[in-house]
Amino acid sequence: MVTSVDLEEVRIAIEMEDGRRYWFEQEEIGQSQLAHGYATTVHRSQGATHDIAHVYEDGGGRELAYVAMSRAREQTRVYLAADDLDQAREDLCRNWETERRWKWAIDTGSVDPDAPRVPLAEIASLRQQALRAERDALAAAIPKTLTSQLRQAESDLRSAKRNLDSLQKEHGRQSGGELGRAAGELISARQHAFQNTLEAKNKDRPRGIRRIARRAADADIDRVQVAEDRLEKLFHPEEQKLTEALDRATQKVGDISHEVSKQERWMDDHPTAPAQLAGLAAKLREVKHETDHERWTVEGELNPRPAPAPVVPFSWDRDDSRSMANDRDYGFGR
Questions:
Q1: CB neighbours (10 Å) of residue 280?
Q2: Is the sign of the CA dihedral 150, 269, 132, 121 positive or negative?
Q3: β-pairing verdict for 72-79 and 50-56
């Protein structure tokens, strides 16, 4: 945590988690010395690439070490707790030589005829847990498909562009609300002014009518000006709002397109990842089927179903059929 900043000496005071405080001088806090850092687990970092990586070694074996040490382009630094450098080197070699992958009982166990038999359901359950963890880690590493989001963003962009073009072209005539009413009032004022101007210039009309029309035309000039001012006052905020919506839609399309490009590059670098994920899903289904089959078998042995009742054959003769027909005639058996 930065506790204080000394502007005169160009240095900052840092407080560590354990309460210790340090001063970082100017040469230690330059742009080339400090950068943003982000911590994550090794499993989460699969598929990621960074310029510089810092790895805290706390066990995990050879497999996790390979993943952790292959994330950086330029440099990877490893940190671990030890009394001295020799112990750190010894611990690091021992940890990285140890294989920590999942091992099944059927791979490592020895045959002992007197040992109790491990139920297949338990073995299948362990395999199911391991496969599910591997599937989840791979699924987290594969970038999400953004095709539908990009399609929707492009549709929103086209809609925003149409709205802005329509507003600018029609100048509010096709808009609703107060803006549309203001545009209608301006159109009406201009039409009245045009008609009165024609009436005032029409020499076929009596002089008195032309004089009245001329006065009305003069009044219409003020009416048109008021309508234009009102329309402009309402038009510019609406235009600004639609322009900002267009800018946001354009930015969103650009951001999603950038993520899609990153996803495509990742898939180019890991072309087998989808097939591996599908294979893990298939293995999970197989193991689940084995677990279910074992459970059904045990349940069947513990709770056997009762034997079905014997089926009694049905037989009849001609006398029975005549008796049934007589019953129907007299209303019996309905």
A1: 18
A2: positive
A3: parallel
Choice among 28-42, 75-89, 196-210 with the minimum mean pLDDT:
28-42
Beta bridge partner(s), residue 13: 4, 23
Question: Tokens standing for 128?
Answer: 């199911």
Q: Helices 273-302 and 120-141, interaxial angle, to 10°?
A: 160
Write the single-letter amino acid at 25: E
Higher pLDDT, 275 or 127: 275
What would the pLDDT profile of 116-155 be if each residue is shown by its tens digit?
Answer: 555 555 566 677 777 788 888 888 888 888 888 989 999 9
What tokens appear for 300 in the block? 């069947």
Closest of 241, 223, 219, 221 to residue 231, by C-alpha: 223
> Which candidate, 68, 134, 128, places its Cα nearest to that of 101?
134
Q: Look at residue 263 in the predicted model and tell me its pLDDT.
A: 86
Pairing of strands 21-24, 50-56: unpaired
DSSP string, 79-135: E---SSHHHHHHHHHHHHHS--S---HHHH----TTSPPPPHHHHHHHHHHHHHHHH
Residue 221 CB: number of other CB atoms within 10 A?
Answer: 13
- Measure the CA–CA gap between 330 and 332, rounded to whole angstroms: 6
Helix axes 61-69, 85-97, angle to 10 degrees: 110
